[in-house]
Every structure is written in C-alpha cells, then in structure tokens.
Amino acid sequence: MNWFSGSGIKVMNRYLQILGTRKDGFTLIEVLVSLTLLTIVLGAVYSSFFSVQRAVERFDNVSLRYHEARTTLDIIRREIEAAILKNPKQKDLIDRATFEVKDRDVYGKTVSSMDLTAYSFRGIGMSTVSYFVEENNKVLTLMKNEKPPIIKSEGYTVDLIEGIESFTVEVLFNNKWVKTWNASDTRKLPVAVKVTIEFDDNGRIIKLSEYARPKVAFR
Fold it and tell me: Is 125 left (phi over 0), alpha (psi -120 to 50) or beta?
C-alpha cells in the first residue's frame, strides 16, 4: 500500500483514532507498527531533503559555469569589435598589430587560439590579447594573456574557465565558417567571427556561442 495515497492516509488516520480511544497500554505489535510507519515517514522526508539539496548544488554549479561562459564570451566579443590592423600606408604605426586564429586538437577535443590587437573597452588604450587553452591532467582551461602592443612585455595571464570541453573560434570567409585566419596574409580583418565555448553539465554538453563583427579596419 502507498501510505501517501488517499487510502493510505485514511487507514493511518483510522489507526490513530483507534489508538486514541484505547484506555489500556499499547501492545508490542502496535508499537512495532507505529515505529514502522514513523520510519517510512522519516525516510521519505530525508529522501526529499537530500534530493532538493542535490538539485540546488547542481543548479549552483551550472549557474556559475553559465555565468563564467557568458561573461567570457561578452568580453571576447567586445575585443573583436575593437580589433585593429596596421595601415600598410603608415610605416610608423604598430608593426605587431595582428589578428590570427589557429586550430588544433587536444585529446580529441577542438580548441582554438586567437591573437588580436584591439582598443581596450576598459579605456586603457591598445592591447595585444591572446586566448588559448591549456591542458592539465586532461582538464582543459581557457586562458587569456594581455600585454601592451609596443613595449616588449610578457603581460599578465589569467585563467577564465576551467574544465571546458572545447573553445572554438570560426571566421566567416566566402560565406563559410573556417577555423584559421591570419591577417598578415589576408591584409584585413574578418567580416564576422563566431566564438563557441562548450562545457559538461552532468553528462550533457552545453554549447554557448557569440558573434562579433570587427568595426575598425585600419588606424
């Protein structure tokens, strides 16, 4: 019998009424039945509690990963939109301005790297920005390096998202999405760029993408 169904509740209520009308003590069987019912009720309560707790923890982990991925994609989009290249007619301008996308494979997972020179949306001038993936014990982490484009410096490197499944950068070329680009060869910025981050959500792969169009050609 399902004790939480309508009939089960009626039986339990009837049993309690009988116990309430008793003037003498309880028999051993009645005590055992009561303890059995109490165990069933407590087991259901504890099961529900732990199920809710696991659901909350899973939601917190996924929400954090979503937030990290969305924030990272938004930053990358802004930097791509602010990307610049050297004007070939101005020899005294930055020689190291670049926009390059490379594609490689790590343990069967697609990862890209991207180097570009852009005006910082934080208002600190121009920067050479690099996005790449590092592997440690088969765990992929998306990294970012930022440094001045003129002064020779290693800049600073930060890890953005740990435990990703892939990081892909694609460039629109002749109405097709390609995974490599070198502005030194094309002499121009791409028309559009698609950036995708994939991560695992308890066995389910989540894919988030962002599109960007460079707004600056030469300076």
Answer: left
pLDDT more than 70, % of the chain: 68
* Mean pLDDT in residue range 190-204: 89
Number of domains making up the chain:
1
Burial class (CB in 10 A: 0-12, 13-18, 19+), 53: exposed
Query: Is pLDDT at 131 greater than 80 in this prediction?
Result: yes
Decide: 120 and 78 in contact? Cβ < 8 Å: no
C-alpha 216/C-alpha 194 separation (Å) is: 17
Give the domain extent around 158. 1-219
The predicted structure's pLDDT at residue 14: 61
Residue 51, SS3 per DSSP:
helix
Distance CA 155, CA 158 (A): 10
For the chain, percent helix, then strand, then coil, each to nearest 5? 35, 40, 30
What is the mean pLDDT of the segment spanning 136-162? 83
What is the band of 101 on the pLDDT scale with cuts at 50, 70, 90? very high
**CA distances from residue 15 to 3, 27, 34, 178 in whole angstroms, order as listed:** 12, 14, 10, 73
